[in-house]
Amino acid sequence: MAYNKKNGLSRLLKLSGAITGEARKSIHNDVVATRSPAFNFIFGKGHGLPKGYSMLLYGPPRGGKSILINEMIGWLHMSDPDVICVKFNTEFRESAQLDDEQVRMYGIDPERLISFEVNQPDQIFDRIEKELAAEIQDGMKIGLVAIDSINGIVGRREGNADTVMTQQIGDNALTVQTGMKRILEVQRKGNFGLVVTSHIRAQMDMAEQMRGNKVRPGVSYALQHHCEYYVYVEPLRSKEGRSDAMGNKFEDDSATDFRDNAEVTGHKVVAKMMDSSVGPKGRVGIFTFDYKKGIINQHEEVFTLGVNRGLIEKPNLQTYAFGGKEYRGREAMLNALKSDPQLCEAILTKLREADLSGTLKPEVKSEESA
């Protein structure tokens, strides 16, 4: 009797874990983003972290890691009235890092953010694998889970030791590796983004140092394999990082210290996609963080992206053009973007369409030819 291939395929596709045509939809259609177009841009394709997938954020202390987590939570809360976010703060700084003023600044709904100050592995991974999974099964819509930071998690043997003098080589790495494996299925089926932050260590590999990579995340290879996105973030320490596109410094001259230095009100942050298994590598984005307002000056980000990706045209040295309209000079274009959110969104829409289609530069059409 001849083998019936159709029936055989049908039987296999009914088995647990089989991927059907419907499940092959693009993961980039449903993402977690921020209010920064530049940061979203570094992901490529859907311009954000696909739900169900993971990002490792690493960088120096106070470099911007927690800022980005809070921005993603705020973006989700402002985008979806039903979404819940969960954060595990292993450094026990949640109350200090996210007071009432900051909650409002990020756009976070405190009633839809569940925060834990814990560092024992069972209070993190078991809760995700069991309690969060049960709530998702009952209908809870979880958009993001954050672990800030992974380095604060106590190893299993370390937690059971009677004294700090007992050496536990490899304990932390194995604990995290096991925990991440146990929550992977919950993460995929629950369709929530996972963001993990890490401290940095000096890069000892001479070849990497020669490439300009002076630091690396303080995590095991297993965690790096778990995360599809691998982002380095730090303050922009050059002169450019202390002022906006028009040269205005992020300072308040009405408030000075004992040396008559103006109060600093913000700074720029640079984020680089160091590696990715599902998107482009090497993209860099720069955004401005105001200490009282959060991410600001998004119009500057749109301007830079639009010019660099060929969306905003330059017919000559003095003129910028988009959508059939021309703007005389850089300042005029920036002011137009600042005053017209729809203009910004039109440029970003073209940019996202280009990334999703895999083209480097979007096709630009004037209003007359469209």
Explain how this protein is built.
The protein is an alpha/beta fold and 370 residues long. The chain folds into two domains: 27-238 and 264-296, 3-Layer(aba) Sandwich (Rossmann fold); 297-365, RecA protein, C-terminal domain (Rec A Protein, domain 2). 34% of the residues lie in helices and 24% in strands. A nine-stranded mixed β-sheet has the order 5-4-6-7-3-10-13-14-15. A three-stranded antiparallel β-sheet has the order 16-17-18, covered by helices on one side. The chain has a two-stranded antiparallel ribbon with strand order 1-2. The radius of gyration is 23 Å and the shape is globular. It starts with a helix and ends in a 13-residue tail after the last helix.
Give a short summary of the structure.
The strands form five sheets. A nine-stranded mixed sheet has the order 5-4-6-7-3-10-13-14-15.
What's the arrangement of secondary structure elements?
Layout: H1 5-13, E1 31-32, H2 37-41, E2 49-50, E3 54-58, H3 65-79, E4 84-89, H4 94-97, H5 100-106, E5 113-116, H6 125-137, E6 142-148, H7 156-160, H8 171-190, E7 193-198, E8 200-202, H9 206-210, E9 215-217, H10 221-226, E10 229-235, E11 251-256, E12 262-264, E13 266-276, E14 284-290, E15 294-296, H11 298-308, E16 313-316, E17 319-322, E18 325-328, H12 330-339, H13 341-357
Helix pairs in contact: 6-8, 11-12, 11-13, 12-13
